[in-house]
Each structure stands twice: as C-alpha cells, then as structure tokens.
Amino acid sequence: MQIDDDILAAASALIAKCTANGEMIATAESCTGGLITGALTGVDGSSSVVDCGFVTYSNEAKHELIGVKTALLEQHGAVSEPVARAMCEGALDRAPNASIAVSVTGIAGPGGGTATKPVGLVHFGCAGKGRQTVTYHEVFAGDRHAVRKATVLRALALISEMIDQKKGLGG
C-alpha cells in the first residue's frame, strides 16, 4: 500500500522520537481502520517502537478488545470524548509493552453524519503511563480520504505531544 509522503515523514519523525525516548506505542483505531499503525510500521525501525494496534470498528470490538463499557457506548455513542478516552486507556492497559496509546473514533463519511455529529468529526484520546490522558476533537473537511489522512497526521502529532508532556514532567 502506498502511504502519502507527508504521513511517512511524520511517522518517521515520531519513530525517531520514540526511539530516543524509550517509548512504545499502541493504537486503538476506529475510523482509520489501522492506518495509524500502518503508517508507523511503514518506517524502518518501527519494530522497536510499535507494540500493537487494535482496530475496533464495531462497538462490540471496542467493548471486547479494549474494554470500553457498553453503557458508555450506549450513553454517548461511539463517536464521543468519553469513548475516545476509554479506547486509549483500554489499549494502554491491554498492550503488553506500550507506554503510550492513541485512539481515534469518528465519522469519515461520506454518510453517517448528523447535526450534532457531522461528517469529519473525529475524537482523539492519548494516554501514557505516568501521564494524564488527553482528549481532543476536530471536524475535518473534505472527502473520506482527506478526513482519514488528517486524522492519522493529528494522531501522530498527539503521540509526539504526549512524549513532550513526559519530558516536561521531568520523566
């Protein structure tokens, strides 16, 4: 599979940063369907940095694989801040060696959007051992490819920011 050059560049920089800081990554992906993990593993040296990836497209997979509570999914819907938080924390908990986990859940389109959850809405979560979980959301413009690409780039940036958070704490 061909990965866009800008995604490969961001993934390569992140692999180098993780290597330098002794970090390992896990992903919990819904709307990207494994593209974040695919971008990371497209880079030489990724085996020392990538622990595992969970593709949890369905609510059942979110619950069974990474422990997102069914009640949370029913109350807030899969595309929500609480679910993004639970996804990254669940992935971090279940990954054997990861020190950081990122999650994405969103509506890539072209259908599936609503007035309160439009096409392009993506919720992110990033958890790190010994660090505070952060969440973020954005509504990206464009077609399905554009939304998923922007999501991958933002997820890679969130992991980098999480590494900086640890460094800022004297870690």
From TrEMBL:
Pfam family, one: CinA
Top-rank lineage group of the source organism: Bacteria
Residue ranges constituting the CinA C-terminal domain according to the UniProt record: 11-162
Protein name: Damage-inducible protein CinA
